[in-house]
Amino acid sequence: MTGLAERLLDEGCIRIPAALDAAFCEDVTLRAIGRLGVREDDPTTWPTGTEHLPVEENWSVADVAPAAAAVIDELCGGGRRIAFAGIQDNLIVNFPADPGAWWPPDRWDAPSAGWHKDGDWFRHFLDSPEQALLVIVFWRDVVERQGPTYLAVDSIRAVADLLVAHPEGLEPAEVLASVPDILRRCDRFEALTGAQGDIVLCHPFVLHTASVNAAARVPGSLRCISNTSVMLRRPMDVAADEPTPLERSVQLALGGGPVHFHATGERGKVVSARELRWKAERDQSARSDG
Ligand SMILES: O=C(O)CCC(=O)C(=O)O
What we know:
Shape: globular
Largest sheet: 7 strands, antiparallel
CATH architecture: Sandwich
Distance between the termini: 61 Å
Helix content: 25-40%
Radius of gyration: 19 Å
Structural class: alpha+beta
CATH class: Mainly Beta
Bound molecules: 2-oxoglutaric acid
Number of domains: 1
């Protein structure tokens, strides 16, 4: 049977179907839509494209999605190695837009595509602990053409090649600058569809983008997901003789055996444009309340 490391590398992600209770998902979704200040039953109140909500509530994965927590633990080598694994209400709602602007997953160079490796808030190394897994939560069903996240499944090896060549580390903007070259060499692009309650654990190196929601602007057409990261207490040990499945997936991406990688640059947090925007919005709302 194919192991978790091979699946994570070859499929880009591991799905845990119905990991969350449907009623819980619906409750969180309705509150999130309310926070956006729109009425779901009145499409005239909807914007177009994606809206990102900041986190207000955080649940432990073990409490709300024990089956997903078990797979996360297994991939990362046990709970004691994990600094953070949470389910958060930072929904990304993709509202229907002009269907004429829709593009399929393999149109990687579409003008409105925003392909990236997650982690706009830390300096990137091959063994970075900040983003051990990219967790995508399906708060509602998502079908093709309804604005699913698109994955470049075979980008993982190329991102590993990039990171192993830069022991000094790369700023998020430097990683982003390499994305078009990597995508040009990829040929496995997929739309990440799913059912309400599914949790998908993606490889931290997989390039992905939001897509256009080409569904009709009628109630029920909003695309509601969230994403978050599993963070480790320490960098991955990619030189390990007995690697965790996550570490093994990095070794496999680079040819198979232990990888003797030593970060020479300083690890560190980067203040992202997104954080600055949210801070400005919070300050503005505090000023209006005061
Ligand atoms: O909205 C999506 O489908 C993807 C969002 C995304 O990639 C991100 O927020 O990093």
